[in-house]
Amino acid sequence: MTGDPQTQVMADRLAALGHPTRITIVEHLAHCPEGLAVTALQEALGIPLSTLSHHLVKLVHCGIVSQHRNGRTLLCRVEAGVLADVSSRLSPAARPPDGEA
């Protein structure tokens, strides 16, 4: 394994995205750039609050999702810059080699 800290951060982010429920959470939040209340997210996904909280902890820990309070409401938001970083680091791998379509 490489000792590069940025590689470990990338691995943690990809691991967090490696679960169908967490991908669904990110997709829902991506459509609400201003943020979405945890209760609204729970209703949209139809999962127990404890399950949602478990997945949110992993997404927040690696920086993909941020949370902040607005009064008594806990809002979640996708960190677009983090997702852009993941995408940009992987994009060379997504392109076919020169001369191939």
Please outline the helices and strands:
Blueprint: H1 5-16, H2 20-30, E1 36-37, H3 38-45, H4 49-61, E2 65-70, E3 73-78, H5 80-94
Antiparallel strand pairs: 1-3, 2-3
Evaluate the radius of gyration: 16 Å
The biggest beta sheet is recorded as: 3 strands, antiparallel
Uncertain stretches of 5 or more adjacent residues = none
SSE order: HHEHHEEH
Question: What's the number of extended β-strand segments?
Answer: 3
Q: What is the chains' assembly state? A: single chain
Distance linking N and C termini: 32 Å
Strand content: 5-15%
Q: List the strand order in the largest sheet.
A: 1-3-2
Overall mean pLDDT stands at: 90
Descriptive account of the structure:
The protein has 101 residues and is an alpha+beta fold. Helices cover 58% and strands 14% of the residues. The chain contains five helices and three strands, in the order H-H-E-H-H-E-E-H. The protein has a three-stranded antiparallel β-sheet with strand order 1-3-2. Strand 2 (65-70) and strand 3 (73-78) form a beta hairpin. The longest helix has 15 residues, at 80-94. The chain is elongated and about 50 Å long. The model has no long low-confidence stretch (mean pLDDT 90).
